[in-house]
């Protein structure tokens, strides 16, 4: 899940008896009857969201690499089928609904292109993990933790410029700290577990998941890095085809 600027509420564990809604409360439009195209076209937020999404899919190397990798894995992504611009709770910018294999883009919270680029990339990493692995999103918090670590690490969430914008200035190991913190925050937003449970899950899988760089092959700290990773991925595909 991609977060907004506000800190999501940490839902406390109550003896394991409280029913978990798996974060669907943050995406209220998920339970509504889809609006007609004519009605949706009248909303500026929806139009802007669709235009920014198309720009991301057509030009952003992070997204382009992930789309190509998913296609090669047998999970081709279609704009109309796998993306949905919706109104969401103010604390989130996007989410991946594994039940429908659909990425939710929070049209009321995504206000500029660079933010859209980051949200789409973050959620495509979740979709890629869903495609390539048997991820138990709902019952195994370690699986969720692993994908949140990978999404924070590889999507550009923790680049130097983004952290400076959050008034967080880097020290040694700051990237890892950012990835860990954002993974924990994301788990707390969508699961009714204690902070201690979220921290334990992240810490137990952190090294393995932080070092799982597929499909990028590197941590893309900038768009230039992402372009190089995309080129390497395309060349790797050509090499494999000639084996």
TrEMBL record:
Coiled coil: none annotated. One of its GO terms (molecular function) is metal ion binding. Its EC number is 3.4.24.-. Belongs to the peptidase M76 family. PANTHER family: MITOCHONDRIAL INNER MEMBRANE PROTEASE, MITOCHONDRIAL INNER MEMBRANE PROTEASE ATP23 HOMOLOG. This is Mitochondrial inner membrane protease ATP23. Residues 1-10 have a biased composition (Low complexity). The gene is Atp23. InterPro entries: Peptidase_M76_ATP23. GO terms for biological process: mitochondrial protein processing; mitochondrial proton-transporting ATP synthase complex assembly. Residues 1-23 are annotated as: Disordered. The keyword Ribonucleoprotein does not apply. It is an enzyme of class 3 (hydrolase). Keywords: Hydrolase, Metal-binding, Metalloprotease, Protease. One of its GO terms (cellular component) is mitochondrion.
